[in-house]
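2024-03-11 09:14:02 INFO queue: dequeued item Probable nicotinate-nucleotide adenylyltransferase, len=226
2024-03-11 09:14:02 INFO validating residues
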Amino acid sequence: MAQSGERDQRLPNPLIASALPERYTSNMRPTAHNTRGRRIGLLGGSFDPAHLGHVHITREALKRFDLDEVWWLVSPGNPLKKRGPAPMNLRMRRARKVMQHPRVHISDIEAHLNTRYTAETLRALRQKFPFARFTWLMGADNLAQFHLWKDWDEIIETVPIGVLARPGERIDGRTAPAAQIYRRALLKGRQARLLSHADAPAWAFVNVPMRDISSTELRARGDWPS
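2024-03-11 09:14:37 INFO prediction written
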């Protein structure tokens, strides 16, 4: 979602999908019923464009935080960025092309909810899916500026937060104002796997090897509309 203020279905293989627990797979629409009790990671952003780095951290989040699924929340725009993103339909199509996984759902729900900031989106999602257990996912670069997000303290008091850090972002992330204020809520080491089961406030910081690619680089190379 663009932090939503701040950060800022593919058709799944039927052989894989058929082996999944019931509920739904990534090409089905989530409902209050089929999300009951599900541990769902939310990865928000403009995805302008989506790339293999997004795919990598999504797969890591599923594993490291014991999530049942991850939703990519493709944001209409980012209030902290002056430049507007590429058209939504183009970004959604790209996201579905690069992220093909039966436990990942690509969503433009933020546009339909008409929410602008992450805190607003979380309020709406929790009302729409009251029995789901959401975990907010972000990079360490977002954690460094998290205290600038609108109602950031409400976010961390509402849902657990999983931070995935690239090697060069580890120090900035751990010394971020929000990290210092909520240092006692940090799940360390192997406890990180319990994040999606925890009650807020709770957050975990995990280091993951990252692919050396970014949306900014893709636009600069001319591989994506700018």
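2024-03-11 09:14:37 INFO annotate: The radius of gyration is 16 Å.
2024-03-11 09:14:38 INFO item closed
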